[in-house]
Each structure stands twice: as C-alpha cells, then as structure tokens.
Amino acid sequence: MQPVLEIERVNKTFYGEQGTTPVLQSVSLAVHEGDFTTIIGPSGCGKSTLLKIIAGLDLSYEGSVQLRGKRIERPTQEKGFIFQEHRLFPWMTVEQNIAADRSLRDPGVRKAVDELIELVKLGGFERAYPRQLSGGMAQRVAIARALLRQPEVLLLDEPFGALDAFTRGHMQEALLDIWQTNQTAMVLVTHDIDEAVFLSTRVVVMDARPGTIKAIVPIDLPYPRSRTSRAFTELRTLVLNRLDHRAELEQDVYSI
Amino acid sequence: MTVPLTAPKESILEAEQRVRRKDLSRRWRLFARGAALPILILAVWQTLSATGAISEQLFSSPWLILKQYAALTLSGELPHHLRISIVRASLGFLLGGSAGLIIGLLVGMYRRFEETVNPTVQMLRTVPLLAITPLFIMWFGFGELSKVLLISLGAFFPLYVNTFLGVRNVDAKLFDVARVLEFSRFRQMTKLVLPAALPNILLGIRLSLSIAWLCLVVAELLGADTGVGYMIQDARAFMQTDIVFVGITIFALVGKLSDSIVRYLENRLLRWQDSYKG
C-alpha cells in the first residue's frame, strides 16, 4: 500500500552568522493511512522543523517529502496544521472560525460545521468568541477548523503543551476519539513520553544535533489505554531508554 | 433544617428587578454628575447677562441663543445652511477618508508600496493645512470643489496613518494560519487584515471626521455664501453674537453626533475584543 506521506533522506541546515548548523540529517519516515505517529525528542532535535517541512511552511531542505506521491511545494488544506497556540481569529465566533474563509450560508458547509462542533463537543458554544473559551476548548475549535478541510494528514505541533495536566488528559482522549471516528492520519510532535505512548500507534524517537531518527517504537496496545497498566509502563520505559541512554542505568526508577 | 438548593422563582425575578432599578438609578446619577458643570455655567451666564453685569450685545445669553435657534429654524435658514455644510463635510470625508483607507491598506500590505509612497505622504502631512488653503483657492476658486478638496485632504491623513498602523499590528502568526488554510488574496484581506486592523481604522475614522469638521469651518470662513461657517461669518459682521453662538453650538452638536455614531459602531463591531474597559 502506498503511504500517505513519504519522507526520504531529508537534510536541513541552518545557515547562521556563526557558521552552519545541521538541523536534520538523513531523516526518512513513511506514514500510512490511519497511522497515529508521534515524534518525540529533546528540544533542538528538529522535530518541529520536520513538521513545518511536511506542512509546506518550510521549503529550504534537501531530500524528498511527498504527499500521496506528490512533492510538497506549499501549504495546502490536505495537510491540516495545529499550532502550539490555538491561533483562532479573535473577531470570529466558534462556528465562523471553523468555517474561516468558507460561507456558513452554504448548506454543505453549515452541515459539516455543525457535525464537527458535535465531534469536538462544543455544542452550545457556536456563537462564543475565542476570548470566552478555555485553552482546551479553543484548541478543539482549531482542530475542527483543520478537519473541515478533510486533510489527508493532520499535523500537530505540541498542541497540548500550553494546557494544564487535567485538560491535557481530556484533550488526548478527545483527539483519540476524533482519530478513531475520522481515520485521519495523525503526526504529533511532543516532548511528553506519556502522551506519546498513550496516543500513538508508534513513537518516533529523535536525537539532537544533528536531528536524526534514533528509533521507531511500535505501540501495540489496544485502545483505550490504561496509563497504569504494566504493558504501558514498560513501553514508556522503553521509549525513555531510546530517548536517553543514561536512563538505562536508572531503569528501576522508571519501571515501577 | 433543610436549605433549598434553588431560590424560589419570585425572588429571582424580584432580584432581577432590583438590579435593573439600581442600574437605572446609577445611570441617572452618572448623567447628573456629567451635566452639573455645564448647567452651572449656563445658569451663571444667564444671570450675569440678565442683571446687566456683562454686555448682552457682546456675550449674548443662553436664553437669547435659544430664541435665535427657534427663529432660524422656523425661517428655514439654519436647516438650509446646515444641510449644505453636512453635504460638504460628508463629500470631503468620503473622498479623503476612502483614499486614506485604500492607500493605508496598500502601504501596510506591500513593503515596496510603503517605500515608494510613505515618505512623500509623511512629508506632506507636516505641512499645515491652513498654509495650503490659499493655493486651493487660487487653483480651484471659491466654489464647492476647493472646499471639498480641502476637507478631503484633512480627512486623508488620520485614516491613512491609522490604517497603516492597524495593518502592521496584525499578528504575523495569523498570516501563517491563512497560508495553511489557503485563503485567497481577497479572503486574506476581508477575513484577516481588515477585521484585525478594524480597531485602528475606526479610530482613524473618528479622527478624520473631526478634522473634516475643522476644515469645513476653515473653508467656509474663508469664502462662501452658504453653510454654517458663512452664517457665523455673516453674523459676526453685524455683531449678532447669538447667531455666532448658534453656529458654534450646531458645529459642536453635529460633531458630537457623528463621533457618537462611530463610537456606537466601535461597540458593535469590536465586541470580540478582550481589552480593559476601565
């Protein structure tokens, strides 16, 4: 089966005043339909840069990035992008934000927007402005806005990083819900191991300076996952070990 | 003892009414506080001129002005002059304001446009309008054209400067969103740039309107045979102080009214803003 997204030997170098810094080195990755891929790594490993390249927001790289066999040349609606902050238009209501440049008077758009509001559980807030929403609600509107464009892949750049732990848990469950309903391929960048193991079908572990893929850990646990189960904690430890070799020495601490 | 979890319906209604009454009385008190000083001044003025402490000829009195208002309205003179003044000011404002808005948007959106146009505009902006007035009269005569053009020149700058500023204040991160969602150039303008710059644009409109009024008076005082400014000038020649006051207050009233309309628009259109309300 042809992958939705195919990244092959991508190199990216940052040319600064203090010479050149390699950001990504020979990164290859394929994302298939229905995959939930999480990219995890220390800060400076280029995981956000990789996501921007996939989105078409960053075009200065070597190598090949293809969506359904076509080279990515600019941002398109086929690649939904969720930023770390919700980035809603403050002058639009929830439903206007989801529709954005489309007209709510179009019955097709209206219906799709209503369904998405249902999906992200924001019924009753259609006419609310972003300032009236909590961080989690606003991020759900941003997800609905991306989903309205029926993307082939949804790219999420640390989308829950700014939320409190309680809301984050809820948002992770909401995202799984959306993924299971829509079957949209997801690529999520995070620095939270727990989040990675809880959500994804596989975890891509990256290393910094230069950014390379160090390991790919498949997560074969059935959904919904329990964070306290033995299998879960073992996989978390495994990811942690791949992330940082020093951690192996302290394995006992993490495998409780 | 059991405590009811919800208050009985009647008491909620009563409470709402109480709150509304309180709100109303608060508004009255606010109004009274704001009106106290003007009323005091008017009362003192009336007393002084009624007792002959100041010359009625030179300083008039509130009562005389009110009588003159009625007389001028009944004779149709005031509505006639006022209508002409309003048409001049609106034409000038529309012409200059829309030019300011459009050029401000272009300068804000395109760097090259800014580099070509902005230095010239900023230079022209520093020239006092009154210094240009003789030129306008020489070029366009004493007719309507020179008046409308003078007003539009005055109305141009505030809208230009504030629109430009508004566009430059748009959150750059939202442009990324517009790219990801593939907004067309037109949608980027109508859905992103214009709404984001709207607070500044509305401020520009308010400032432009007040400058339009200012220029109107200048144009009408310098040479005109109709309009409120002419009415004032004419009355001055005959020492009719009450008519001068009628002209001044009518300018103040219409100016305040147009400002209130824009403030109302601000309140309606900027509901989404999350800013300090004082």
From TrEMBL, chain A:
A Pfam family that the UniProt record links to this protein: ABC_tran
SUPFAM superfamilies xrefs: P-loop containing nucleoside triphosphate hydrolases
ABC transporter domain boundaries: 5-233
EC number, UniProt record: 3.6.3.-
Keywords linked to the UniProt accession: ATP-binding, Hydrolase, Nucleotide-binding, Transport
Domain of life: Bacteria
Keyword Ligase attributed: no
Enzyme category, top tier: hydrolase
GO molecular function: ATP binding; ATP hydrolysis activity
Annotated PROSITE patterns: ABC_TRANSPORTER_1 (PS00211), ABC_TRANSPORTER_2 (PS50893)
Entry coiled-coil feature ranges: none
Name of the protein described by the UniProt record: Sulfonate transport system ATP-binding protein
Source organism (scientific name): Paenibacillus phyllosphaerae
From TrEMBL, chain B:
Locations listed in the record: Cell membrane
Membrane disposition: Multi-pass membrane protein
Domain ABC transmembrane type-1: 82-262
GO cellular component: plasma membrane
Domain of life: Bacteria
UniProt-listed Gene3D superfamilies: MetI-like (1.10.3720.10)
The entry's keywords: Cell membrane, Membrane, Transmembrane, Transmembrane helix, Transport
First-listed, main subcellular location of the protein, grouped into a coarse class: membrane
GO biological process, alphabetically ordered: alkanesulfonate transmembrane transport
Transmembrane among keywords: yes
Pfam family, one: BPD_transp_1
Sequence intervals crossing the membrane: 30-54, 86-110, 122-142, 148-167, 211-232, 244-265
PANTHER family found in the cross-reference section: ALIPHATIC SULFONATES TRANSPORT PERMEASE PROTEIN SSUC-RELATED, ALKANE SULFONATE ABC TRANSPORTER-RELATED, MEMBRANE SUBUNIT
Family of the protein in this entry: Belongs to the binding-protein-dependent transport system permease family.
Name of the protein in question: Sulfonate transport system permease protein
Organism expressing this protein natively: Paenibacillus phyllosphaerae
